[in-house]
Design goal:
single chain; two-stranded antiparallel sheet; mainly alpha
Length: 102
């Protein structure tokens, strides 16, 4: 089995944001990008904290989701500035995204 990335997959992040913004990206590339981003996000959530934060609301629209990802996972001067990221929200955004792409 192939492991998920151990560092934030910035290429995958940008593909997901591009697709959320309506750009034409092949669905198989976007699905793979979403899968990698989802795996990375889930790996950032300590197992003992998953249950209490499952009710954390996630953006509903594509535009809100893209905005959340851009705001919380900022790419500045080639470096990701994650700051305080609610990874469960990122995971929910990406999982919903994958289900709607395929």
């Amino acid at each position: 089995m192939i492991s998920y990335p151990t560092s934030l997959p910035t290429d995958a992040l940008m593909l997901v944001i591009d697709k959320l913004r309506g750009k034409d990206v092949p669905w198989n590339q976007v699905a793979l990008a979403g899968w990698n981003l989802l795996g990375y996000a889930l790996a950032q959530i300590p197992q003992e904290t998953v249950q209490p934060i499952l009710d954390e609301p996630a953006p509903e629209t594509r535009e809100e989701a893209a905005g959340y990802l851009e705001e919380h996972l900022k790419l500045e001067e080639g470096f990701i500035q994650t700051g305080l990221v609610t990874w469960i929200v990122v995971a929910k955004i990406v999982l919903r995204f994958i289900l709607n792409v395929v």
